[in-house]
Amino acid sequence: ARGAGYAIPSIQVDGNDVVAVVRAVRAAVEHGRAGNGPAVVEAMTYRRGPHSTSDDPGRYRSLDDERRDGGEDPLNRLEATLRAAGALDDTSVAAISEQAGEFVEQVRLGVDALDARPGTEMFDFVFQEPTEALAAQAANWREESEHV
Questions:
Q1: 51 catalytic, yes or no?
Q2: Cα within 13 Å of Cα(60), Cβ side
Q3: pTM for the predicted model, two decimal places
Q4: Which one of 33, 59, 60, 117 is the catalytic residue?
Q5: Is 47 a catalytic site residue?
C-alpha cells in the first residue's frame, strides 16, 4: 500500500528475515535497472529501541513486552539459517566476530575524529528547493541559536 498512491510497485517482507530482505531489494534494484522506475520495499520489523534519544519506551511498553513481541533477532535467525545450510561454523563465526569488532573500532575512532558539523546542515540537505515551512524553521533555529 505504501507505493500504491504513486503507482509504484511495492512489496512487504519480514524485516527480521535477512534472506527475504535481500531477495526483495535485489528484485527492486533489477526492476529499476530494467528501466521500469522505482519500487518500494517495506521491511516490517519491531523497533527494539526508542524512537530517539528523548523517547522513553518504558512509558508505553515493558522490557518483557519487547522480548515477547520483538521476535527472533535477525542476526541470530540468519546465523541459524546459515548453520543449517552448512555455510557457517564456530570457526567462521569467531572470525566474523573478530572482523566486526575491528570494524566497529575503526568506525568509533573515525567518528571521534570528526569535527562538529554546522547545525544549518539539518536544513540544507532536506530538499533541493526548500519549502516555505522549512525556510521558516531554519530562520527560527538561526535566531534562537544566536542566543546560545
A1: yes
A2: 8
A3: 0.64
A4: 60
A5: yes
